[in-house]
Design brief:
Blueprint: E1 3-7, E2 10-12, E3 18-25, E4 34-39, E5 46-51, E6 57-59, E7 67-72, E8 77-82, E9 91-97, E10 107-111
Parallel strand pairs: 2-10
Antiparallel strand pairs: 1-3, 3-8, 4-5, 4-9, 5-6, 7-8, 9-10
Length: about 110
């Protein structure tokens, strides 16, 4: 069973920054593509960013240039540095090991003035 501990969310003003962290257990992420998804109130869960085992990143258009995804295979962790946050970034953020069916509890990000 794959488990996730997501952290780093919180309340931030528009234009602010947050860094999300995700500790993965139950699988060694080294060989996997991993990433972040988010779900805003009343909306479906959506893709945010992924990073392959060769450190190739992909971002959804709305976060390009503002979010940076990275991984630390030695720690089995992934991170999402979020800058220039907007109201529309408000959501629960989930990390994911692609190819597995597991989800964590997520971490809430609220962007509000």
């Amino acid at each position: 069973q794959v488990q996730f501990v997501e952290s780093g969310g919180g309340l931030v003003q528009p234009g602010g920054s947050l860094r999300l962290s995700c500790l993965v257990s139950g699988v060694t992420i080294r060989m996997y593509t991993v990433g972040w998804f988010r779900q805003a109130p009343g909306k479906q869960r959506e893709f945010v960013a992924t990073i392959t085992n060769e450190n190739s990143t992909t971002y959804t258009d709305s976060v390009k240039g503002r979010f940076t995804l990275s991984r630390d295979n030695a720690k089995n962790m992934l991170y999402l540095q979020m800058t220039s946050l907007k109201l529309d970034d408000t959501a629960v953020y989930y990390c994911k090991v692609l190819g597995t069916r597991y989800w964590g509890q997520g971490t809430q990000v609220t962007v509000s003035s």
